[in-house]
Specification:
single chain; 346 residues; alpha/beta
């Protein structure tokens, strides 16, 4: 059985791809040099070494520093296009990309309209050249609640609506700020009719997850580490149908599990939680969405039926409009049969 080849061949969607964790090294370093970053940054060599050998306890800081090197609209378009090429090579047809605008705009004179247009310039090039589509989740950083209302306003603006922005997100470690600081921004998003996504469980486990669920009422959760040992939370998620998007690689790199076989994916699936696999920060985690699915089978006890269900469910629970979702589901069903014939033993 050619499991990896099969997984690579079926159309996949990635619902938690973080822009600053997916940069392509060569393109990023070229942009940094063009923008004069080495000359103005005493510890540039230190950070470039961390890109090669990440310190996973400083991964969010590393991603933010790398993002600060990307300062102009053409830089944004370039990194998005490069990410699209990487997605195509991994067989990803569509990705919902978490973007933190304040990380880019604080070092430049870009307005939010220019920033969103730059994202879509790169997206349009990737779509034309590689048939990879992307949408944007504009995120509030946990450690900067002051920008919460601004990001909510940007995410619900006319420019966002026409610029493939599909959701408002909250990203970062829970212990940075109380979750109640972001309640108004999430309420604004719900009132304006856009989706919401909250990262929870990163540093506070089940307590952080419950706080996010109760105070923010998100449509989707990401990370969610710690719920496997809390049957009440598992039952609540299963009953509500709230999707959770997880990365096995993230748990490995951050030391939450010693081995992928210890990741409680089977427990979540068996308890009818709407669990989805994503790459998170593929460049920094040294992984891909294909790797996530392969680990799910080879080390977490899932079978091919589970893999197909997870991949199809990711399309169904994406924030795509119904017509685009149907088109992608039709593509999935057609290519699934071809992948079975080509890569699986009969």
């Amino acid at each position: 059985m050619g499991l990896r080849e099969f997984v690579a061949a079926i159309p996949k969607v990635d619902l938690n791809l973080q822009l600053t964790g997916a940069f392509v090294d060569d393109g990023l370093l070229m942009i940094a040099r063009q923008n004069g970053v080495p000359a103005e940054t005493d510890d540039f060599a230190y950070w470039t070494d961390l890109l090669v050998n990440p310190d996973y306890q400083r991964i969010d800081e590393l991603a933010a520093v790398a993002g600060s090197w990307v300062r102009y609209p053409e830089d944004i378009a370039r990194v998005v296009y490069d990410i699209g090429v990487g997605l195509a090579k991994a067989g990803v047809s569509y990705a919902e990309v978490a973007v933190t605008p304040s990380e880019f705009m604080q070092n430049s004179s870009m307005s939010i309209d220019v920033f969103i247009n730059a994202l879509n310039d790169g997206r349009d090039r990737a779509l034309r050249g590689w048939d990879v589509d992307m949408s944007w989740i504009l995120c509030i950083p946990r450690d900067n609640p002051r920008v919460g209302d601004d990001v909510a306003r940007w995410a619900t603006s006319a420019t966002a609506k026409s610029g493939n922005v599909v959701a408002l997100g909250l990203i970062g470690e829970e212990d940075a700020q109380p979750v109640g600081q972001f309640k108004r921004a999430f309420a604004t998003a719900r009132k304006k009719g856009i989706f919401t996504v909250a990262q929870a469980g990163s540093s506070m486990g089940a307590d952080g997850l419950m706080s996010a669920l109760e105070e923010l009422e998100p449509y989707r959760l990401t990370e969610t580490w710690g719920i496997h040992s809390h049957p009440d939370i598992i039952n609540s998620l299963a009953e509500s149908g709230t999707p959770i998007v997880v990365s096995i690689s993230r748990a490995l790199r951050r030391g939450l599990v010693d081995d992928a076989s210890a990741y409680p994916l089977r427990t979540l699936v068996d308890n009818n939680v709407q669990v989805l696999l994503a790459s998170g920060m593929p460049r920094l985690y040294r992984s891909s969405l294909v790797d996530e699915y392969v680990m799910a089978v080879e080390q977490c006890g899932l079978d091919l039926t589970d893999v197909v269900d997870l991949a199809r469910r990711s399309i169904q629970l994406s924030f795509l409009e119904d017509e685009r979702k149907k088109t992608l589901l039709d593509k999935f069903d057609k290519q699934l049969e071809f992948a079975k014939l080509s890569h699986l033993d009969n």
